[in-house]
Amino acid sequence: MSWSRSTTSAAVVLGALGASACGSSSTSSSSPSTGSGSSATSTPDALNGGVTVLAAASLTEAFKDAKTKLEAAHSGLTLTYSFGGSQALVTQVQNGAPADVIATADTATMQKLVDGGLVAAPSTFVRNKLEMVVAPGNPKNVQGLADFARTDLKVILEDPSVPAGKYGRQALAAQGVTAKPVSLPLDVKSELLAVEQGNADVGIVYVTDVSSAGSAVSGVTVPDSQNIVAKYPIAVVEATKNHGAAQAFVDAVLHGAGQQALLARGFLAP
């Protein structure tokens, strides 16, 4: 298969999902093409209307940057995001939640939607690496993955159903490390917040999450030889009512302003 801080974000936009996905899309997607279509100047802006995007929590800052750029460049565009754990977003689509685009943090989770015929063929749009997250200044002197076995540390890992939780366990297992997490949050931003608030001493998130938190946390590098590279796929949801704009957003994430925003936030090119 080849393709592409706040945990309250998803809750904030739940009430807007239906309106953004369905209510403003028909004009741009159903405009008749009565001419030959040869004149570029007469082609309507594809990024138009409401587009609802379900996106992995680790994409929060980069996708918000992209929203600012895209809405400024396309006056008729309204982007609505719902961020969360990839597994939860897939369940939303499976349950019929209105959405136009979905972007997850692993290909296996996206494959569930492919197998169900619920999305168009996905494309990998960025990659990411794992990083250990600790309190500012690393007061517990965490040096590497082996420290996750220390009994004096409050370890936190995402639930195994979350891509980052799966990746973190794979990295630890490869080093023969058994961790006993104090909690199992359902997305990386919740894990990051637990470390920020002192409810955990060390966790495993993505490099981009540590960077986005600024001085609120510190990062401890996971060597490339011990790291897991995450691949992020994006796809148009088949049930979208604004297919043209949904595909145009995907294109912007793959090649345009969206991709630029992602790279600026520290994601790796696909």
What attributes characterize this protein structure?
D-Maltodextrin-Binding Protein, domain 2; single chain; 37% helix; 270 residues; 8-stranded mixed β-sheet; 2 domains; alpha/beta; disordered N terminus
Summarize the structure.
The protein has 270 residues and is of the alpha/beta class. Helix content is 37%, strand content 19%.
Structure description:
The chain is an alpha/beta fold and 270 residues long. It has 2 domains: 9-30 and 45-126 and 231-264, Periplasmic binding protein-like II (D-Maltodextrin-Binding Protein, domain 2, 3-Layer(aba) Sandwich); 128-229, 3-Layer(aba) Sandwich (D-Maltodextrin-Binding Protein, domain 2). It has helices at residues 9-14, 17-23, 26-30, 60-73, 86-94, 107-115, 163-174, 188-196, 207-213, 243-255, 257-264; strands spanning 49-56, 77-84, 101-103, 123-134, 155-156, 202-206, 218-221, 229-236. Strands 1, 2, 3, 4, 5, 6, 7 and 8 form an 8-stranded mixed β-sheet that branches. Strand 1, helix 4 and strand 2 form a beta-alpha-beta unit. It is elongated and about 60 Å long. The protein starts with 8 loop residues before the first helix and ends in a 6-residue tail after the last helix. The relative contact order is 0.22. Residues 1-42 have low confidence and may be disordered.
What is the name of the CATH topology of the largest domain? D-Maltodextrin-Binding Protein, domain 2
Fraction of residues in H or I helices: 25-40%
As residue ranges, the low-confidence spans are 1-42
CATH class of the largest domain: Alpha Beta
How would you classify the helix and strand content by structural class? alpha/beta
Overall 3D form: elongated
Family: Belongs to the bacterial solute-binding protein ModA family.
Organism: Candidatus Amunia macphersoniae
GO molecular function, one term: metal ion binding
Pfam families: SBP_bac_11
